[in-house]
Amino acid sequence: MTRERLEQLISILYSPDDLLLSLNDLLRLLKTPIVAAGLHHHVKSILLRDDYLREPQPVHLALIDQITTHHTNLHSRYLDIALHIRDRKSRIFESLCQLYDRQSSRSEVAEIVMARQKSIIDRFCHLLFCGYVAPVVEHMARMYQQSRMDSSLLRYFILGTLEMIEPPYSREFITCFLPVVVDPGVYDQVNKNPLARAFIDNAVAQSSS
């Protein structure tokens, strides 16, 4: 069965037809772990290719979301010993980090670059929603601190996350996410949003109880 699904995947990927035409088949096939791993590698190789100059296609982003949803085993894979980073990074997480950096380095109109960055941040939010929380939040905060992300993009990430969650929050989540929300660089704007104010109030109440 697995071999048959892999052969179906290869047939679709080598077809001259647009992947969008085979999206339903791909969504069915990627429920098999080894197929999902192969499909992720294929999408990553396309998006990070040196001669790939276009904006990431919606079908590629949809596939990343679905792989993230169905396969938590792909969330955690590598330990980056060289950089002494303790958190185990996922293949998907690593791909998104590389894709974000690649899009950010494009010499294009700022509005176009920012739109692409937001589409990748949406994928980070989805990955966070699927349980890969601390590495995503810490990475967003680190990029902001290193001036690799401006305050408007950090606000976009914060509000995108807050739209997906509701109390009660785990102590671990409050510990990593609250400092990002109340960062002086974004707090004044973020605090105008009812979701942000509600999160801060709940987080403070939970922390003091």
Structural summary, described in words:
The chain is built from 11 helices and no strands. With 209 residues, it is an all-alpha fold. Helix 1 runs parallel beside helix 3 (33-47), helix 3 packs antiparallel against helix 4 and helix 5 (91-104) runs antiparallel to helix 6 (110-129). The longest helix is centred in the middle third of the chain and has 20 residues, at 110-129. Residues 75-89 have low confidence and may be disordered.
Helix and strand layout, with pairings?
Elements: H1 2-13, H2 23-29, H3 33-47, H4 58-70, H5 91-104, H6 110-129, H7 133-145, H8 151-162, H9 171-181, H10 187-190, H11 194-208
Helix pairs in contact: 1-3, 3-4, 4-6, 5-6, 6-7, 6-8, 7-9, 9-11
Rounded radius of gyration (Å): 18 Å
Number of domains: 2
Q: Helix- and strand-based class? A: mainly alpha
Individual helix count = 11
| Largest sheet: number of strands, sense, barrel closure | none
* Euclidean distance between termini CA atoms: 52 Å
Low-pLDDT stretches are 75-89
Pick out its properties.
mainly alpha; 209 residues; 11 helices; 2 domains
Could you provide a short overview of the structure?
By secondary structure, the protein is mainly alpha-helical. Helices cover 65% and strands 0% of the residues.
